[in-house]
Automatic annotation (TrEMBL):
Signal peptide residues on this chain, from the entry's feature table: 1-23
The protein's name in its UniProt record: Tetratricopeptide repeat protein
One Pfam family cited in the UniProt record for this chain: SH3_3
Transmembrane segments: 138-157, 169-186
Lineage: Bacteria, Pseudomonadati, Bacteroidota, Flavobacteriia, Flavobacteriales
Gene3D superfamilies, sorted: SH3 Domains, Tetratricopeptide repeat domain
Amino acid sequence: MRNFSLNIVTLFLFSLLVSNGFATSIKDPNIDYNKANELYAETKYNEAIEIYEQLIKDNMLSTDIFFNLGNAYYKVNDIPSAILNYEKALKLQPDNEDVIFNLKLANGKTIDKIEAAPDLFITSTWNTLVTSKTADSWAYYTISLFFIALILFVSYLISYQILIKKSGFYGGLFFLILGLFCWLMAAQNTAYHERSAEAIIFTETVTIKSEPNTASEKLFTLHEGTKIKVLETTTDWAKIKLPNGNEGWLRTSDIRTI
């Protein structure tokens, strides 16, 4: 009996040690995030960048991390990396005013000032509406509106009062249509980003070619920090398009996708 009790105690202590070791082996990402913010506040930008980059490699993808990383790169005058991370932050939260403002500051330091070709008003307005929220946000609205519509339809079915039945039916119909609209926005947002692969140029100066080979005609020159749309890629080359409609080829090693 005494040996049995001793074994139980031994097993308990061993389990405790193992659990403590397991717990300490899992790092809390919030601790690293706070540490990076502290380093940033102490103007130790390069050290903060290392931690923010590691958090992203560990799949900690958030608007705040991309935003803070962009700010840290901006402070060390790495403008292409700052723009890249501001753009990634906007992919997650398109209406974040702080990111939009800082991205504008960073773009102000780039050499290339490209005027966008005018879109049709309807096309521009539609794209602005579709990208005003992320696909996840539109999906969240869809589920919420469908749930409200369901409750109203149930009230229509179980109520005997005419006023409640009418409110339930027409209210449910309204929220159902609104939910379908948000579902359409979510689908359009996903399709928009799938056909709009974008990248930032990281080479200081790059010559755009007419074909994907070094012997082809030189079309124009771009500089680091410029945002481009990627139309297609081969092993070493990418066909790009600028907001003004100009197209050409550059090496994939010159860019990083957003």
